[in-house]
Amino acid sequence: MTGLSESTSANRPAARAGSSATIPVPGEKRVFMTGNEVVAWAAIAARADIMYGYPITPQNEVMHYWTRLAPKFGKEFLQTEDELAAGFTTIGGVLAGKKAFTATAGPGNILMQEPASMAEMMRLPVVVVIMQRGGPSTATVIYSQQEVILTTFGGNGEGFRIVYSTSGLQELYDYTIKAFNTAWRYRFPVFVLADGYQAKMREPLTIYDPLARGMELVPPEQYVGRPGMPGVDRPPGHYRNTYNTEEELYEILQGHVQEYERVAPEIMEHESLETEDADLLIIAHGVVGRAAKQAVEQLREEGLKVGCFRPVTLRPLSAGALRDAVSRAKRILVVESAYGQLGKLVRDALCGLVVEMFSLYKPGVGVTPEEVVIRSKELIA
Amino acid sequence: MRVIRIVEAYVGEYASGKSEVAINRALELVRTGKPVTLVDLDLVEPCYTLRPIKKELMAQGIKVLAWETRGTVGFGETGNILRAEIPWALKRPGHIVFDVGYGVGGARTLELVAGIDREPSFQVLAVINTRRPMTGTVADIVEYVRNLAPVHGLINNTHLGDETPADAVQEGARTVSEAGRRLGIPVVATTVVAEVADSIGPVDCEHNPVRVLRRYMPRAFW
Amino acid sequence: MKTKKKPLKIVVAGEGGQGVQAIAEILAEAAYEEGRQALYIPNFGVEQRGGVSIAFLQIGDQPIGAPKFETADIVVALNARAVLRTRQYAGRQTILVYDNLAEVKGEDLPRQAARILSIPALETAKRELHPRVFNVLILGAVIGATGVVTLDNTKKALEKRLGYKFEHDPKLRELNHRALERGVELLGQVIQGGKEQSGELRAHN
After folding, report:
1. Do A244 and C51 touch (CB under 8 A)?
2. How far is residue A252's CA from residue A259's CA, in Å, rounded to a whole number?
3. Which of A66, A215, C45, C89 could connect to C51 by a Cys-Cys bridge, CB 3.0–4.6 Å?
């Protein structure tokens, strides 16, 4: 692993010419990977510059793979003493104008909320990948969807951040790349919320060079150390995370509110399946969304009118589209590997609508399509 | 030279298929009638190991040196307690197959096994899946295997999980064989699931023997 | 039914270290000694020295509701920046008192205020007493302007807070008491020199 002292540009070896490694992924390739590796490859493909990290199961391989790939592509890495430092150093990287990211899980995510709050206050484009594990506290190293509230609203602020919830390895690749673009375009902290299943799961997927596909990669920008004398050639960069009076803070936050609400429609994403005529609407995110989709397919084959709404952004949530889909349904069923965390976000988005809401809550436990089918049949009878 | 017994260690990249290949090798050997021991030397990976299927394998006549999953869950990154019987695995009679985890120690983990340096027929086999990007090209494989040294044989286990087409396996065979020529290491076999083996035949396009794999590891996710 | 008297609303503001919070805390304590209701909250920044320091204090006969209020009856500002920061709390009935050494720009003063008085508090403290009792002088001025608590009860509150220091050096007690009395005098002089006190403010005594 490269430490910062070893990797000044003077002694960093240039990427080997002619090796498969000068362009991260030439063109496209169908590969067999685990989720953690996907994150590392996607970050390389997104032209990320540096990862700051601290080990915690189940996301350790993100770090392992990044550190193996880093020397081949001229990337940097720093292991910090804990997740607080990992988050703050990521902020430092961003302020220096680097595409910086970090990854964590569980108790590490709790610590990460402190730097995340700073990133919210200062509107910094940090990228954080979360592999949810059982909670609360150490619980299990395996899987859950119990970090939804923590990742969407876990700081001591208003949650002006963006959270993508991926449901498989292709999405993990696509949205890790997108996370950097979203962060640097809109200047809010961005989280890729996955889980221990996705981290360890092995699936084929297509990895690609976003530039080869004609995608734009938003370039990073320096916050500090810009050329010219501050105060003379240009205004000084003055970035604050602390204010002296209530009124000052209020004004700044009003600015954040307006900007967040302005760009939210451009950012929010969701996926719907058979929702036009559904009597029962299942709402699920991430990996549980796959079980829900399978359940819908099976139920439809049996002639039952069930649909599925899968939010891809949990923050900002596609409230309009959700309300739309819900207004056509008689009943909704929220399914998650948590005890009502997605449920809370859904209730908040649906406020004002009248609909019967049911749940299939399995905190820290994987949800099978069969369970969703059985529960749906109970509700549609 | 008369081989007294087979002692093989399967090493490879994370998710290359070394556990699957090791299990199938152990099952192949147990059919010869001699005792077979399968050793779990994965000290890092909390979930994809042969531990969850230990009972199933024991029922097939293999002696498995591994914890039950319950005995190790929760340690995550803090570490792994080595079972006392594992360093003395070579004292056991019959064939011994080691499944060596991907951890940073790699093949050096084998140094934990007493007498490994004196075992006459000891072989280290590197399992390669060319659909894993770190071992996708000849150059990458050569570099990777050189770092693992010593390796005595290569196994082409190219696959894409459930999506594996025959030509991917053949392409893998060509890549691994070329790497083998550059390294001066023989390709011992191409391992592949039954359906695909049918369309390839008893040898692959580089005349490496084809060995049929039965999948056990999908049941080994925790 | 008798209409409830509204509590007196006081804002004191200055730089961290000038003793702004101490003034408000002592006043609140004095009101408590007097058997009245008091509610105090501070506003300040993260700086160890200097920076914003504002105190919001309400004294009345009924339990006070919310800690924040829109308009103060009296605003006391110890430096120029404080005058600017507290403008929003000065309404048409508000009295603004500020230290005459503060270099306040004319346009920064709240033109809508009922009375604007500048007193030579720091000057007097430096010349006659000691610069450290500058804030006690200001405290005296506030009492003089509002009569919201008696001098005696204020001295009791001061004793509660600084008694342990006065034990070591009784001269400090004298100094602080003198500063209080001087503050009352200063305020009185400035008022006599100008218009009469606003009737509204008298009603709170």
Report:
1. yes
2. 11
3. C45
The conformation of residue B35, written as its DSSP 8-state character, comes to -
Rounded CA separation A286/C119 (Å):
67
Closest CA to A124 of A148, A105, A100, A150: A100
Q: What secondary structure, in 3-state letters, does C123-165 show?
A: HHHHHHCCHHHHHHHHHHHHHHHHCCCCHHHHHHHHHHHHHHH
**A200 and chain B: CB distance < 8 Å anywhere?**
yes
Q: Answer yes or no: do A57 and B76 touch at CB < 8 A.
A: yes
Specify whether the CB–CB gap between C39 and C27 falls below 8 A.
no
The two three-digit tokens of residue A215, written as one number: 């995608």
At residue A76, the pLDDT reads 97
Q: Which of B32, B56, B177, B45 is nearest to B105 (CA)?
A: B45
Question: Residue B140: what pLDDT?
Answer: 94
Q: Is the pTM of this model over 0.80?
A: yes
Look at residues A178, A193, A139, A202 and name the one whose alpha carbon lies nearest to residue A336.
A193
Location of structure tokens 């960093």: A12
Distance CA C186, CA C100 (A): 12
Task: List, in sequence order, the alpha helices (H) in A187-318.
Answer: 196-200, 246-267, 286-301
What pLDDT, on the 0 to 100 scale, is given for residue B104?
65
Q: How many domains does chain C have?
A: 1
Rounded Cα–Cα distance for residues A115 and A118 (Å): 5
Question: Which residues of chain B make contact with A202, given a CB cutoff of 8 A?
Answer: 15, 161
- Which residues numbered 29-88 in B keep a CB inside 8 Å of some CB on A? 46-48, 73-74, 76-77
Least Cα separation, residue A189 to chain C (angstroms):
25
CATH of domain A24-208: 3.40.50.970
| Rounded Cα gap, residues C142 and C130, in angstroms | 19
Q: Give the Cα-Cα-Cα angle C12, C14, C20 (nearest 5 degrees).
A: 55
Domain at B7-220, CATH homologous superfamily: P-loop containing nucleotide triphosphate hydrolases (3.40.50.300)
Closest CA to C28 of C172, C142, C192: C142
Which residue from A34, A55, A142 is facing B15, i.e. has the nearest CB? A34
Instruction: Tell me which residues of chain A have a pLDDT lower than 70.
Output: 1-23
